[in-house]
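Appendix B. Chain record.
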Amino acid sequence: MTTLLSSPAIEARLVALPDWRLEGKTITCTRTFRDFITAVNFVNRLVAPAEAAGHHPDLFISYNRVVIKLTTHDAGGLTEKDFALAEVITTLD
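Structure tokens predicted for this chain:
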């Protein structure tokens, strides 16, 4: 099982990810796009890195907006896996 990060470790990691915010036991990012097709194309680009990491975000699409939530469900909170995937997602256009 993956080790949960401490609150200070989570806060330190969030400093490097300004588009992400802590919400309970998840980190969340909202991305806004030109239209629905662009938003869905962004979600499709998440598939390969999520599969490669064996770690899958919770995704919510509303027209041109995508909300991404990361948590390590089997660990019951935030782990290094969440921040590693958030870093990759941040680089996607």
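Further analysis of this model is presented in Appendix C.
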